[in-house]
Amino acid sequence: MISGIYQSDLPVVIDGVPGLDTPRYFEMMLAQFGPDITGIVRVYDDADFLVPSSEVCPCRFVENGKVESSSMALSFRSHGDCPGSSGTPLIIGRFTFKEPVVVDDEAGELLSGTLELQDAGEPGQVDVTFRRARTWRQVGEADLKCGDPLLYADDPPETGDAG
Amino acid sequence: MTCRAAFVGILVCLAGLITAVPVTGSEVVRPASKKVILIPGRDFRIDPDKLFFDPSEPPPRLQEMPQLIREASAVLAAEPEIELVDLSSGQPVSAPQGTASRHLVVMGMLHLGIERYRDIRLPEAISSLEDGISAALASDSDVLVPAVVSDLYLYLGLSRLETSEPDLAHIALKQMFGHMPERRFRQGWFPAREERALRAAALDFVKSPARENPFESTERALGFLRERGADALVYVFLESDPEGGDRLETRVFEVSRKDAGSVEVMRDSRPYRGVESVSMAISSWLACADLPSRTDTLKRLPRVFLDTGFSYSMFAQDNSTRTGFHNIGLSIGTAYQIQPGLDTFLRLSFYQAREDSYGDLLDDFFSFRASIGVGYSAVFNWGRVFTHFGFEMDYLSGFKSSTEPRCKLWPDDPDLCPSSQVTEPSFLFGAVGLLGVNVFVSRSVFVMVQAGISGYFVSNSALVDLNFPFVVEFGFGYAFF
Questions:
Q1: Are the Cβ atoms of A33 and B359 closer than 8 angstroms?
Q2: Domain region containing B325
Q3: What value does the mean pLDDT take over residues B102-107?
Q4: Residues with Cβ < 8 Å from B326, sequence gap 6 or more?
Q5: Which residue of A has its CA nearest to B406?
């Protein structure tokens, strides 16, 4: 089951997306329901995944996540799902994975694949590797909440860029 | 013409044969009856002071018991469903399995014993008399011809007196009274020692309780009835009431209908007021006796079936989840057999839904299903086969499903999971059909297996989401007759 929190091994740069065109660390909280995947993609500035990126909307809901055999595809909005940022282009992720030999020994489980901006074509693909940091049982209520409450203030930002 | 005549002749013969069959079948069938044996009665009213009568007077004749027995015989014979075998004459009767010849042996041993007693060959006399008593017990002569056995004991007692065995003589003489209490003796016939012994035995006998079982054991009574193929035996005796007056005692030994290996004893005790007393006693028994016409020959089949067991159900049409979900629970049901072939039923089931593999069920929930209706059921000795048809109501407590993954992760967030994406049927109503079988593992306990399917036509939500649940049940039950 691809459920849990996955973190990128290396910083990711996606050209053409404001705020993501500089190195950021991606964290994906994924929940698998049969063939479906949903979850949240968060963006951090540091490799320790402690400081949410202040320049982009840190909250992105997974859309149209699908699992088939040992591959997975999902998408999320390039500008995030903060108020006012809907309708922006999608970033599409395609990954392959390997089921752990022992169910609870998931430290070595990796998602290897690419991220690309919608309609960017092959030149825009970025190779990424995500490593599972927490299993689903270790996911708490706070992990299911999207973003900083401050982002949902009465005066939301006009764009996906966090103010 | 010859061939045609032969053909017609054959047809006529065939027609005759066919019409003859009903005639044969319509022969009068002898009604079933209860075979009852009447054995000699006894009059235990002994007055030791009147044991010896004056030789100048004729011997007293006790006529009451023969009258009572005649009346008892008449009452029994008047009952059309009683086949009376009257063995109350006290005379040797033909009996099965050579017991009649054994009675001849008894008589022979008695005569031999008397001869040897008179020849003062006392040990030989005692031996012969004891052999005679054994033979009498083996041939039931002690019950059917008690006078002969009484003679055996009389001469045995007299012999024992001659051999200076007064204790054994006392026992033998007491037994003599037990078999023929009406016995009286001519005064002066016996020497004084013998008269004293007879009087002492009579005194002892009077103080002893009356013998209400002439066979001494019910096992022997059962053997007697079986040997003669009888259902019951009637025994009447008179005794003195300690509070004054006389009592008529009636005992009926009857082969038990519940347990053919035992005998049930009917006891009737009433003040003796002449032959009417025995008539009333016998009639009283007849009034409640299991006569063939009163015997319930109908094969009783269970009327009420109560069962409980495990139940599994799944909706054959399920558009709310992609893989369907299982319901496991318990059920309890009852069926009442209105008449052969027709029954009515009520069934209640409680289920707990199991999470489906895709997690489309947003939460576990329980459901309650009730069905009621009628059906065809065939009840056999081994069990019951039934089909039930009726109405069914299914209450789904907290059913919520969605195929939208966000609704599974954030079911309570209306922004992420709009209500339009959640299916929430709670009441379903429709018809049900069941097919099942009950197999008895004992007289009343049975194993139940049944399967069925329902179709719903009313719901608080779209019926296309959830319909046609099938059910399989297994359990145990109890049948009430």
A1: yes
A2: 304-480
A3: 82
A4: B312, B313, B314, B353, B354
A5: A38
Q: Mean pLDDT across the stretch A112-138?
A: 84
Residues B352 and B364: beta-carbon distance below 8 Å: yes
> DSSP for B15-74?
HHHHHHHHHHHTSPPPPP-EEEEE---EE----GGGSEE-TTSPPP---HHHHHHHHHHH
- When pLDDT is averaged across residues B87-112 and rounded to a whole number, the result is 74
The complex's ipTM works out to: 0.79
**Pick from B294, B315, B336: which residue ends a domain?**
B294
Burial group, residue B7, by CB count within 10 angstroms (0-12, 13-18, 19+): exposed
Regarding whether B331 and B466 lie in a shared domain, the answer is: yes
Residue A44 lies in a domain: yes
- Candidates B361, B409, B417: best to mutate against A (most CBs of A within 10 A) is B409
| B416/A contact by beta carbon, under 8 A | yes
Residue A37 to residue B405, Cβ atoms within 8 A = yes
Grouping H, G, I as helix, E, B as strand and the rest as coil, residue B175 is: helix
Size of interface A-B (CB pairs under 8 A): 29
CATH number at residue A57: 2.40.128.120
Interface contact A34-B408, CB threshold 8 A:
no
CA distance A54 to A153: 15
Q: Give residue A65's domain range.
A: 4-137
CA distance B413 to B419: 10
Closest Cβ opposite residue B409 in set A34, A35, A144: A144
The structural domain count of chain A equals: 1
Answer yes or no: do B360 and A144 touch at CB < 8 A. Answer: no
- Give the tens place of pLDDT for each residue, A79-103: 777 766 667 788 899 998 876 555 5
Best to test chain B binding among A33, A76, A82 (most B CBs inside 10 Å): A33
Residue B360 contacts A where some CB pair is shorter than 8 Å: yes
pLDDT tens-digit profile of B346-357?
Answer: 999 999 998 888
Q: Do B322 and A34 touch (CB under 8 A)?
A: yes
Give domain status of residue A152, yes or no: no
